[in-house]
Amino acid sequence: MRPSGRRPDQLRPITLETVGINKHAEGACLARFGDTHVLCTASVEERVPPWLRNTGKGWVTAEYGMLPRSTNTRTDREAARGKQSGRTQEIQRLIGRSLRAVTDLEALGEVQVRVDCDVIQADGGTRTAAITGGFVALALAFRRVQARGLISTIPLIGQVAAISCGLVDGTPVLDLDYVEDSGAQADANFVMTDSGGIVEIQGTAETTPFAQAEFMALMELARAGITDLCAAQATALAATPG
């Protein structure tokens, strides 16, 4: 039995809230993966980075951060320290790559979307919640600026979501919370599209190396989890007015 009482193939309770989250951002989603809560906002700018000017292409990028009391002890804001940690930089680059994987940058035109993912409360899987919620915020932003005439079409070629899996006491399990993640023999983050395409996989053996068969078991759990997350994304978008 898992500490949470979940089955090995069971996600934590997932909610993707989009109504009344942020009145200023073009797109917003509060992603809750159990006790991990991430606020995702998408801001649209009618400009692109200098290296993309006059190319006709747009850009999607992301920033990620953990609020000072998102964990059981307070951590200083990275702005107060004067620099971002390597972990923060790695995660926000992952989020950006994941969102660009399902965006047609030529169809977007010379428009940039910044997706900010702020961890309000952390209990494992903050990057996967950020990617999953970030996609919803991005899709809403595209919808709203299309209605304003800034873009002519929705430049999405699919959905993207992410989930963690790991070996806990030798058993492959889906969607690790902090207790499981901190004690897993191996863990991996899977980023996939709704059509089953692989965007990125991050996998690590924390103790001894794990076998290919064990990796494939994690992959199958991830595929099933991503299917459920993409369905939750579609439901959240369909239920959001405007």
SSE blueprint and pairings:
Elements: E1 14-17, E2 27-33, E3 36-45, E4 59-66, H1 78-81, H2 86-100, H3 105-108, E5 112-121, H4 126-147, E6 160-168, E7 171-174, H5 178-183, E8 186-193, E9 198-205, H6 212-238
Parallel strand pairs: 4-5
Antiparallel strand pairs: 1-2, 2-3, 3-5, 6-7, 6-8, 8-9
Describe this entry's structure for a reader:
One of its GO terms (biological process) is rRNA 3'-end processing. GO terms for molecular function: 3'-5'-RNA exonuclease activity; tRNA binding; tRNA nucleotidyltransferase activity. It is an enzyme of class 2 (transferase). Belongs to the RNase PH family. It catalyses: tRNA(n+1) + phosphate = tRNA(n) + a ribonucleoside 5'-diphosphate. By secondary structure, the protein is α+β, with helices and mostly antiparallel strands. The chain has a single domain (14-239), classed as GHMP Kinase, N-terminal domain (Ribosomal Protein S5, domain 2), CATH 3.30.230.70. It contains six helices and nine strands; from the N terminus they run E-E-E-E-H-H-H-E-H-E-E-H-E-E-H. The chain has a five-stranded mixed β-sheet. It has a four-stranded antiparallel β-sheet with strand order 7-6-8-9, sandwiched between helices. Helix 2 (86-100) crosses helix 4. The radius of gyration is 18 Å and the shape is globular. The model has no long low-confidence stretch (mean pLDDT 96).
Give a quick rundown of the structure.
GO terms for molecular function: 3'-5'-RNA exonuclease activity; tRNA binding; tRNA nucleotidyltransferase activity. The model has no long low-confidence stretch (mean pLDDT 96). This protein has helices at residues 78-81, 86-100, 105-108, 126-147, 178-183, 212-238; strands spanning 14-17, 27-33, 36-45, 59-66, 112-121, 160-168, 171-174, 186-193, 198-205.
